[in-house]
Every structure is written in C-alpha cells, then in structure tokens.
Amino acid sequence: MKNRPVFSVILLLVSIFFTSTGGFAQPEPIRLKTEKVQNAEWDYYIGKVIDARDPEQVFANLWYKDGSGKLKSYSSDIIGGSKNAISNFMIDGLPRNTGGRQLIIRILECRIRESNENTHVSGLVSLKVQFEFEKDWGIQPLTTYSTSLKYNRSVQSSEYIEPALRKVLANSLKYIYDWVKKESATNVLLAKGLKLSFSNFEEQDMDTVYYQRARLLSFDDFQARPPANARFQAAIFPSFGYDMQREYKEGFILIHINLKVYMMKSASWALAMIKSTYSLNHEQRHFDLVKVIAERFKTKLLSEKLNPDNYEGIINFEYLEFYREMNRLQERYDQETNHGTNRAKQEEWNRKIDAELNAQLIAGTD
Question: What is the pTM of this model?
C-alpha cells in the first residue's frame, strides 16, 4: 500500500514534463464553423455534395513551432474529416426549400497550403467547384466556380486558417445563389418545364394546297401530266410535316408546332375521262386521312410528358411513327375501296373519316 503514492507521483511528474514541453504536439485539426450564407428563400436547394478531389491529396499543409523552437510542416484536416465537414457546410449554408429543385455541388479542389517565412506563415486556400443538375439521363453541368484566398499569420497562432477557409466556401455559395437568380430568366439550362402549342399552316401558294376544312380540292389542283402507263385513273400525293419554333420565357421553354398538311399540285394528276364528283371525293378523302393522322400526332404529343431534356427526341420519334401510320392508312383505304370503285366501302370510309374529323373539331384539337 505504501508504494502506490510513489508511483502516482512519478506519473504526475511525467505528465507535467510532457505538458510543459507541449510544443512537440501538433496543433488540433481545423474546427470549421457552420454559417448561414443566405437566408432569403429561393427555388433551389443544395441536395448533394460530391467529393471529386484526388483521394491522395492532403487537405492542408500547415506550419507550427515545436518545443525546441524549430518550424515544422505537418498535414492537417478538418475535425470530422474535410469531406463531411465541407458537405455539411455547403448543404446547410443556403435555405433548404426541398420543394424546389435540387442542385449538386461537385468539389473538384479544396485545399490549404502554407509556406514558412521566418516567424510568419503565408497561406493560400484554394477552391474549385462545379454546380450541376442530376437528370434522368445523367449529370447536367451548370457552371464552375474557382477562387483562392491568401492570408498571413504568426507561426504561433492558427486563428486565421478557419476564417479563411470559411470565407472561401461561403463565397462559392453566394456565387451560385446569385448566378441562379440572374440566369433563371434567360438560361435554358434552368428551365422549369415546357409548354406546347399548335397551329395549322393554311397559307396557299402556286404549287401547294395546304389543308383547310372549308377549302375542298378541285380537279384544277391536279396539274401533273398522267403517266403513259398509268395503272389508276387519278393520283394524289398528300403528306404532312411541321415547323417548330422555340422560345424561353419566364423559366419555361415554349414550343410551338405549326402543322402542315398539304398536297402538291405538280405531283397530282387525273385522267380527263374520270373527272366526276364521285372520283374527286375519293381523292379528297386521301387528303382528309392525312389531316386525321396529323391531328392524332398532335393529340399524342399533348398527352406526352415532355420536359426540357427529352422533347426533341420524342417529337421526332412520334412524327416518324405517325408518318408510317399515314402510309399504312392510305394503303388500307385504297385496298378496301378498291381505289374508289367499291361504292359501299367508299361510303363507309366517308362516314368514318367525317366522324373523326368532326370529333377532332369538337375536341378542339383541330
């Protein structure tokens, strides 16, 4: 029992020795403080921070004076690790309107480097980040921000390191907040959605008849010379296409499609011997069928969930699909009516075509 106090005294002396010469111990890791960079609400929030730095790169190379008075360099980090600390700072630094759109911050570079200058130390905090959207198809880069900040400090004091780091990180958040506010009105990458509208091209020209409900075909529109070996008594070559205009307004991409249902006079012909009201009606119905298909194409697009990332591909795909359907429907029409010679079938198709055209007119798609 008498030996225990002696042992305790020895431990106490050892502790005092190392404490009094504590210069051998490196300073504590950096303690990054949290900061609300911006309080005003916005339509975005930082949802994810991706650390894309070189994993082999040391976060901070700092200087300190050891117990013997010698200056030494050492590697340091943020308490909790720079990856987690920076991520938390970025996510919490701006308002979190999770009902808004999520932004991603990709950390490309973030480090602190110091150089020794006798009793003083010069430091440089460097930061490079990329701001992104995460889309269904992948990552959409928005803008990149790079900055650096110099500081000078006494070798005995590390108090300037954390404020310099915090300033650099805060500046990147201020940048993206201001950038989004400024760019939202004009930058299509920030489009909130898409609005689709249609019109029908109806202006006429010398060689083209553009479809109008009130403008029926006449044999004057069949101006091509019939081929010498014609298999049929008349031929019409109607088709459809579209022009597309784009506009970015108030955060939305406005897409306007001008549908063109037409027939070419110089490609259509009729033999003089069959120029009757009945035969003209058969050719008119070919034209009507193209109008039917064009309106189906419009209805299909209006039912699609178009967005700023996929609208062009979907519109092009659906156009080709309905173009093929137009050709199939025209062939079926001629087969079933036997090119108009089967009067009962012709009347059946007349009723069917009129019913769909009228339904489209009532529905307002026409």
Answer: 0.74
